[in-house]
Fold this sequence. Notes:
- It is built from 19 helices and 33 strands.
- The chain is α+β, with helices and mostly antiparallel strands.
- Strand 31 (754-760) and strand 32 form a beta hairpin.
Amino acid sequence: MTERMNSLWYARPAGDWHEALPLGNGRVGAMVFGGPDRERVELNEDTIWSGRPGDEEGYRIKEMIDQARQLIRDGHYAAADRLTDTMTGAHDSESYQMAGNLYLDFQTEGPVEDYRRELDLSTAVATTRFTRNGAAFSRECLISAPHQVMAMRLAADRPASISFRLSMDSQTRHATQAGNDWFVLQGQTPYNNHSRRPAGDDAVVWQKDGQGGITYVVKVKVVTTGGVCEAGEHVLGVTGADNVTLFLAIETGFTRWNEDPSDDVVAMEIDCDRRLDAAVELGWAGIRSAHIDDYSSLYKRMSLDLRTGDDRPTDEILRGAAKSGDTAALANLVFNFGRYLLISASRPGTQPTTLQGIWNDKLIAPWRSNYTININTEMNYWPAEVCNLSECAEPFFRFVREMAESGRRPARKLYGARGWCAHHNSDLWRYSYTGGSKAQHAFWPVCGAWLCQHIWEHFAFTGDRGFLADFMPVMKDAAAFLLDFMIENDDGQLVTSPSTSPENRFFDPETGEETSVCEGSAMDLTMIRELFETIIEGSRILNERDELVNDIETALGRLAMPKIGSDGRLLEFSIEAEEPQPGHRHISHLYGVYPGWMFTPERFPDYYEACKKSLHVRGDQSTGWAMAWRVAMWARFQDGDHALKVAGNLMTFKEARADMTYGPGGGLYANLFDAHPPFQIDGNFGYTAGVAEMLLQSHRWLDGKRLIHVLPALPAAWSKGSVRGLRGRGGLDISFTWENGTARTVGIQADNDVAFHLRVNGKDTVVTLSAGERLERIHA
């Protein structure tokens, strides 16, 4: 049972990148295809981006924003939208790039039998096994975080059976060279790659003033037992080996987001050699053991067992799920896969996960495989705290700190404001200006409030006052910008203007045109209120009151609330207007339900119900990541059956070449990557967070104490199961079992002194625990 929930396996090689199996150590990523005749391993490294540090010019926001605000105030929304388009101009982030492909072309003929390709989620080792001509062949591949190398072991049960030719290529500009037991690729990314759609080399600027983008080196060291290893022209040959171990290292010239990268390939190769020499000295067994110990220390902190299993290949389970309606086994596996991906894509010291984690095989990737920070980057980290992977969020918090530094430039240059701001796209260079040329996505300077929500959530889950004190200036500076950006409405309340709701539009009641700007969207007002409240509470906890906090408290009292429409729904754009896409993928206006905490049955219950009505109208079918968000949202509405229905829609097989769609076309590829389509990893992370939300919630308050709610949204189909190691806010490690939909045992370990309401099987009790104390209860 446990193996089935922690293993992806296939009875054939990957025919496409979306069928290959992902490996990663947070920095280096690989997609393993498992071909018997040709093994392809597509490679990534998290700092291989286009571009260099820079700044943006050509904006006219300062000169035009008052005119746009007046048009909005006068009800001329379409005209204000056109003006906002003009004043933002066309600017955008750089692109995450692939490093290259490693190929092993084998010189063995004959039919392949007993083929099995597998990814063990509990060890992060990919394995390919098959027999040919009576000999059994195996390949194991991993990427070690402790030693920062990829290692691959090729073995056969018949001596002298392993012969292949090793080569590499890349879509970046590159050169290769081979030695007697090594192979090296030197590459460089474009100076500029803002491309939003594939358009060939004319969409990419490779050099400017003699400079390109990031320079990097990929080097492979080959260790053989038996046989001969020798270099050819751009190829390394191995003949008649008993077994072979490949060690691979990647180094780049990146130093810091605001510093020019190095082009010293000699130094990069020396750094590769240092890592490779250490790996060779330790050997395959030592590297493998250290890797599994390191990885398992994170993965095995928690577990989910829905008491289901399926022995079929993973792609067959996925293809059959939609037909049978039985998704329990797949639901458990996809949940674990999300945890696996977060550990593999984000570790302390690495870059945060992009739209595709650390896996991208294209020069011109969809949406540049960037940091889309109006939902997608944040969603990548939703499972981190609740699924006991708090360390994996360290790159995100470092990103927020660096964005706060970078974001001072647009705050001053575009708005004449204090503090810092960010819009909806970013990249390795911490791009913080507007992204794109249309107001519906480009003009969204309030992103800092959402990024700061994760800071408070980390404190809420851990109780780490040192962390809170360290990041309080970042939160306060985000608030300082918002204080300067907001204006008074006709009622004397504070609102944002121009205000958008990410990527959605409405019909201008005056002209019937599609437009996107208003005064005080629901999302803006909700995020800002939560930010102000957390700063006030954080300042109280830290006993650090100052004049800015006083200003924030005053502004909070004047901050407008979102509006509820005549049909009982929450108004996304502050006016009652028809929408061209009633089922739009974004549900930004419902932020206060999830991932926020402002709208609950206890606090603003009318808004809570208005959000539920809005979600019903939005519908269940959407893009992959948007359905993941809906899973979490229905969990917050304590409707587990509806959450599972949406999850079932998400667990729909998508062909690798499924056309891009912004509509109801989401699902999963054969390797369980989320399909927008195309691939976006946030759907994987959002789904895992949504399932966790179905099982445990800790965001609500009763009588001044947190409510820890066990099984708040359990679907009827999950009648029996167990969870170990989920995290609750307040520094709680929580495990429980259930049968027939009823909790049977509950165990809670406290990291800090804490008192909370515990809700189990509809009954509430107040629990007080000291730091280190554990509660164990059996429920009849």
